[in-house]
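Can't paste images in this forum, so I'm doing it all in text. The chain is below; anyone willing to post the predicted structure tokens underneath?
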Amino acid sequence: MPTHRFTVGQMVRLVTTKGLSPAAAVTYTVEAPMPSYQNSPQYRLWNAEHHQGRVALERDLEAVLNT
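Text version of the structure:
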């Protein structure tokens, strides 16, 4: 069973925005881990600026590094 790589409160970015609306947010905060789907952990995500939530597979996310 795969383990989750990202933690609640961590900022993540979608690896690809293909198929998303141009108005869709690209960066999100992890709200909660969810059960795996197709052998990939998934997460509930939220972007407060755009008031957008989504569920994404871990393989479709990358960590946002603080600079």
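The CA atoms of residues 15 and 60 lie 5 Å apart. The mean pLDDT is 91.
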